[in-house]
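Sharing a chain and its predicted structure for anyone who wants a worked example. Both blocks are below, sequence first, tokens second.
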Amino acid sequence: MAEHHLPPEPGHHHKGGKGVHADDLKPARRRGYGYYGHDKGSSGLVRTLCFVVLVILLLAGITALVLYLVYRPTSPAFAVNSIAVYSISNVAAPSAGAPSAVAASFQCSLVIRNPSGRASARYDRLTAYVVYRGEAITAPAQLPPLAQDPDSAVVVAPVIGGAGAPPVPVSHDTAAALANDVSYGVVSLRVVLLGRVRFVSGPFRRGWRSMYARCDLLVGVRKGPGVGAAGVPEAPLLGNPSCDVEM
């Protein structure tokens, strides 16, 4: 009679082998591969470019500041050496209601100094006149254009008022005060110089700038014989004349 063999039990089939765990039955995790190396390289390049641009801008700013400090022009300085009084008197009004007028003529010696060591100066449209108590007592006198080298001085001596110039209308109070000061022998005057100036410093050329210079003088006026070849009455400067410049 034939023998029947039964299949082996599961436990005997795995005897001596490793057991199967639940974790082994879980699906394998997929590993993701990113482009982290490429991103880091791009960021480093951008930072390098930004740093280079900042360094260039910083160097350009420092260079511009140094050039500005080296070639920066300084406002011109004015001084009055002397003044000659050719005439100064009131003109009688033609009628009681007409304004008073003053006939005056001066020659003023002005020293214009350019203190800038690297910038030359160009002056144009220069006009000079004399003021007494806030009112002009001479007609404006035109001066020729001037060119001035760096760190130099030039002397101009314009005749302000001149012969044949018409009298200048002034108020009655100003005419009376001027007559009183002339009789006393001391007159406070102001010499005004208007125009425009332009500085040329190295490779830089600046635009024209308006200039307003004023010099306050205390002049001693004496009646009597003149001095010098022109017979000009003495007009000594009393004290130290002061000049201010606005640009």
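Comments welcome. The CA atoms of residues 224 and 233 lie 7 Å apart.
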